[in-house]
Design a protein that fits this description.
This protein has 11 helices and 15 strands. By secondary structure, it is α/β, with parallel strands linked by helices. It binds zinc ion.
């Protein structure tokens, strides 16, 4: 059965049982219910970070119940729960727990300011006690699956999705197989190093990695002293022919271009789709600049490689969790 897609409205095939979709980020969690009538019952809350380390899982279970009520669906009829989550993950007894630096206060200690001392947040185990069919994936992997299913990566066996947003995340697919790795963390290429610049501390603790240099929140940290309070201010100045802002954006594109080049030649990719708020709002400016870093380098590996904007546009995140549990 193929899903029916129209005007970015994706719904399950007629007669398919409803599924719950959870988009879990460091600052908020969003839950929707999808069935043959479409995606409904959307609820969002700030991500739970107070109490015991099962608080987040129980927040998700409660939100699924509330989303079902809003959508007019019985919780007992939910056939599967898909969770597209920020990472990284750790495994305990084969089940995924979350070790997110913006959620677990026990990782960096009290100075980090989080209201808990968790080293992990339970995720998969409590969900499995309530729901029979649960699939948790890194949000980059989930977004890749959505782009392969409905977006710009349809029909691609060697491809990647890159989000350029608050953070930098990847989903990778080679030979038609989505790459997961030992703990489901494949695609954390935002934490690779591509240059010697050391003026940027990443939330992961690295100094000068890709995410530390070019993520949305990095732009504010690095360039506020130069008069650009955030990404919006930097890009506005560039559009107004501010030469300094244009040079800074060229520098951002160099970092992203190098990161993309490295993965293209490592994995022999054929197409990469890009999304995320920083990219999406400035894609007309950014896409040609980033693409230039692939041109004329090792042509045997880069000729014909496509960099494209996400086919699902700003809605990639909304459909990422759904892609994890969509009936085949
Ligand atoms: Zn990092």
């Amino acid at each position: 059965m193929n899903p029916i897609t129209s005007e970015r409205s994706i719904h399950l095939p007629p007669g398919a049982a409803p599924v719950a979709c959870v988009d879990l980020g460091g600052t908020k969690v969003a839950v929707t219910i999808a069935d043959e009538h479409g995606v409904r019952g959307r609820l969002t809350e700030p991500t739970a970070t107070v109490g015991t380390n099962d608080a987040l899982a129980f927040q998700i279970i409660r939100l699924i119940g509330q989303s079902c009520a809003a959508a007019g669906v019985s919780v007992a009829d939910i056939a599967a729960v898909g969770v597209a989550s920020c990472g990284p993950f750790t495994m305990r007894n084969g089940l995924i727990e979350l070790s997110g630096p913006n959620i677990c206060g026990g990782l960096a200690g009290k100075e980090r300011g989080l209201p808990n001392d968790w080293t992990t947040a339970l995720l998969e185990a409590p969900l499995r006690q309530v729901f029979g069919n649960v699939r948790v994936e890194n949000d980059g992997i989930a977004a890749l699956e959505a782009e392969r299913r409905w977006g710009a990566l349809q029909g691609m066996d060697h491809c990647a999705y890159v989000t350029w947003s608050t953070g930098i995340g990847w989903g990778l697919c080679v030979d038609g197989r989505v790459l997961r790795g030992k703990n489901g963390n494949a695609g954390h290429a935002g934490h690779t190093f591509v240059c010697d610049n050391t003026d940027a501390l990443c939330g992961c603790g690295n100094v000068g990695d890709v995410e530390g240099l070019i993520a949305g929140n990095a732009i504010a940290r690095r360039f506020a002293h130069a008069g650009y309070a955030d990404a919006a201010a930097l890009f506005s100045a560039a559009y107004a022919n501010d030469v300094q802002a244009q040079a800074l954006i060229d520098g951002l594109c160099e970092v992203m271009g190098r990161a993309i080049y490295n993965l293209v030649v490592t994995l022999d990719l054929q197409r990469i789709s890009l999304g995320g708020s920083v990219y999406w709002h400035h894609r007309d400016l950014l896409l040609p600049k980033v693409s230039a870093y692939l041109r004329n380098k090792l042509p045997a590996l880069t000729n014909g490689v496509d960099l494209v904007s996400a086919g699902l546009g700003e809605c990639v995140g909304d459909y990422a969790a759904l892609a994890l549990v969509m009936p085949a």
